[in-house]
Write a structure and sequence with these properties.
This protein is α/β, with parallel strands linked by helices. The protein has a single domain, classed as Leucine-rich repeat, LRR (right-handed beta-alpha superhelix) (Alpha-Beta Horseshoe). Helix content is 23%, strand content 13%. It has four helices and ten strands, in the order ααβββαβββββββα. The strands form three sheets. The protein has a six-stranded mixed β-sheet with strand order 2-3-5-6-8-10, with no helix packed on it. Strands 1-4 form a two-stranded antiparallel sheet. It has a two-stranded parallel sheet with strand order 7-9. The two termini are 24 Å apart.
Length: 226
């Protein structure tokens, strides 16, 4: 049984590598514009996205930091924009790493230009700081998404029911600590529209008004982890 699970995991890893390996195909021009528009509305104090530029040495957005494209079509598939929180347990090192973390977090606004990334399956904006702004409703229109991680990203307010339109979603993480998370829901009926969802994290979100949460989660046919 264990060997079979390892084989399945290895097969998936090889498939993803083949899908996203380097190639001669460049990114799609409209998607390059979408990424540049997205960058314009982000606050990037440490210039982590300096490569995202028409003036960069390599204007192929498939080579930009955090961007993964399909190796044959050039379509943008993944955006890895997480900021890594310190993991050291030593006080002196932690303080220095935390200061570096604070200098590198993204903030600002999530631009709707992401909607032009028609093949985007993976979006990770975790551990940034969007200063309690609401999760954009338009994210629910990126129907290709399979993985969405907004954990510890400083979003606040009502979790939009439009996320229930992401019928291809396997992974949804809106979790955080009570300090970082000011999200709440009125109900979780929108979850029932996510038949492929396997992982859901709503830690520290206020679910007090969602008396239906257990019933809705029990309806998910693919669900594995809460």
């Amino acid at each position: 049984m264990y060997a079979s699970l390892r084989l399945i995991a290895l097969t998936r890893t090889i498939f993803l590598w083949l899908l996203t390996a380097d190639s001669e195909v460049g990114c799609i021009e409209s998607e390059r514009h979408a990424l540049l528009n997205f960058k314009q509305h982000l606050i990037d104090p440490s210039e982590r996205l300096a490569s995202w530029s028409w003036a960069a040495t390599d204007v192929d957005c498939c080579h930009w930091i955090g961007v993964v494209c399909h190796n044959r079509t050039g379509h943008v598939l993944q955006l890895h924009l997480r900021t890594f929180f310190p993991t050291t347990t030593e006080d002196a090192q932690w303080e220095a790493q935390y200061e570096a973390y604070e200098r590198s977090v993204f903030s600002g606004k999530i631009n709707p230009s992401l909607l032009d990334l028609k093949h985007l399956i993976y979006l990770d904006l975790s551990f940034n700081d969007f200063y309690y702004t609401p999760i954009p409703k338009f994210l629910g229109s990126i129907g290709s998404l399979r993985y969405l991680n907004l954990s510890y990203a400083g979003f606040g307010g009502l979790i939009p029911h439009q996320l229930g339109n992401l019928s291809n979603l396997h992974y949804l993480n809106l979790g955080g600590s009570s300090y970082y998370n000011n999200l709440y829901v009125m109900n979780l009926q929108w979850l029932s529209a996510l038949p492929l969802l396997q992982h859901l994290d709503l830690s520290s979100a206020n679910l007090s008004k969602a008396s239906d949460w257990l019933q809705e989660i029990s309806k998910l046919p693919s669900f594995l982890e809460l």
